[in-house]
Amino acid sequence: MDAEEILRLDREHVWHPYTAVPSGVPVHAVARAEGVRLTLADGRVLVDGMSSWWAAIHGYNHPRLNKAVHEQVDAMAHVMFGGLTHEPAVRLAARLAELTGLPRVFLADSGSVAVEVAIKMAIQHAAATGGEGRSRLLTVRGGYHGDTFGAMSVCDPVSGMHHLFSGVLPAHVFAPLPPGGYGHRPGAAEGGAGGAAKGGAGGAGDGGGEALGAGGPDPDYLDELSRLVAAHAHELAAIIVEPVVQGAGGMRFHHPAYLRRLRELADEHGVLLIADEIATGFGRTGELFGCDHAGIRPDIMCVGKALTGGYMTLAATLCTERVADAIGVLMHGPTYMGNPLATAVANASLDLLAERPWREEVKRIEAGLLDGLAPAVGLPGVRDVRVLGAIGVIETVDPVDVARAQDVVMAHGVWLRPFGRLLYTMPPYAAGPEDVALITRAMTAAAASLRP
């Protein structure tokens, strides 16, 4: 089909994510993806600043990942995981256990399902350990954990995208929004943004922006976390948070000290700690996992997105031996659990991650984002500009006109998908300096177009 026919049928039949029918935002047909670029059906070529919703960390059409899929499909595309097992799934589980220190691995279909499984684990663990009344979770405002019902129930109940369902979702306990200030802000330190290119992604004195974690944690907020957990400990099965970076709930960065304190409080009150690492896992923040910023290990961890390098849908929920032993039989079993194609490409993706200098790549991207986003600081309509690892954010005063912003960034040869009050990027680790510079120029141009 040509581009016109694809888009006609799309308009007539397809319901896209987070849009009405018909969509009020233009849809663009993709013909090919290679490296860090998308080729549209109309011939335009765009640098992908989104990594396909943060998953395609190695870029597209990677020969190693392609080979893994081709070889696996010739052997076995799928087999049920009930009573059967296979090498790709076993290898992946062992690899994830080694990377996280969490030895029990439940393979799931998607990030949302991984969160559902984590919630089930927590509630079953509470019931099995004499805490039958402990069926609620504590989390923080501004979070996002997925679109299924259990996951929606721990997303922000007021400003989140699922507030329409608040009357039918379980009522959990929400701490206030974590204070921001973690990460880097372009031009905030001596030397301005230009120092980012020279000093890299380091801390104070590098000249790339405000020091990482400048100002330290807010003691009043730490006290509020302590008060809330103590007040509700009798009914809590677990605490669930996105470590250090809140993703789709607002792209906010918070101090690791809050995560460390939640780990202490969970231990103090006999509550499990769940880390939702679906967006933060596999190097995106500059550490392999968000929890590494705080130097803690959760009782349960959810991973997904970048797990397969963006090739197939796959996630996992991992837990300690203590949690698994207490639960016994976990009442969950996706039809495509442990899919051989998905687990084979996930193994190949983790091999690539282990071989590539991803820390240096993420630091280079961070430096490029600091340098390139500096011109957006102080623009009319811009509230904040912040960077952490391979994440760059321009937060606006008013909601972004998505169609208008996309017109601007696409005119600059870039693909981004703004939402809410956010123009942001999470480029593939394979993005070179010129790609990052192109992305930041497009973001700054879009920010400049917000107000006449």
Automatic annotation (TrEMBL):
The organism's place on the tree of life at top rank: Bacteria
Cofactor: pyridoxal 5'-phosphate
E.C. no: 2.6.1.62
UniProt keyword terms in alphabetical order: Aminotransferase, Biotin biosynthesis, Cytoplasm, Pyridoxal phosphate, S-adenosyl-L-methionine, Transferase
Region (Disordered): 185-216
CDD domains: OAT_like
InterPro entries tied to this protein: Aminotrans_3, Aminotrans_3_PPA_site, BioA, PyrdxlP-dep_Trfase, PyrdxlP-dep_Trfase_major, PyrdxlP-dep_Trfase_small
Leader sequence residues: none
Catalytic activity reported: (8S)-8-amino-7-oxononanoate + S-adenosyl-L-methionine = S-adenosyl-4-methylsulfanyl-2-oxobutanoate + (7R,8S)-7,8-diammoniononanoate
Location of N6-(pyridoxal phosphate)lysine modifications: 305
GO molecular function, one term: transaminase activity
Binding, substrate: 53, 144, 305, 333, 417
TM ranges: none
PROSITE patterns the record matches: AA_TRANSFER_CLASS_3 (PS00600)
Site location (Participates in the substrate recognition with KAPA and in a stacking interaction with the adenine ring of SAM): 18
Cellular localization per UniProt: Cytoplasm
Xref: Gene3D superfamilies: Aspartate Aminotransferase, domain 1, Type I PLP-dependent aspartate aminotransferase-like (Major domain)
UniProt binding sites for pyridoxal 5'-phosphate: 111-112, 276, 334-335
The protein's role, per its UniProt record: Catalyzes the transfer of the alpha-amino group from S-adenosyl-L-methionine (SAM) to 7-keto-8-aminopelargonic acid (KAPA) to form 7,8-diaminopelargonic acid (DAPA). It is the only aminotransferase known to utilize SAM as an amino donor.
Subunit structure: Homodimer.
Family indicated by similarity: Belongs to the class-III pyridoxal-phosphate-dependent aminotransferase family. BioA subfamily.
Protein name per Swiss-Prot or TrEMBL: Adenosylmethionine-8-amino-7-oxononanoate aminotransferase
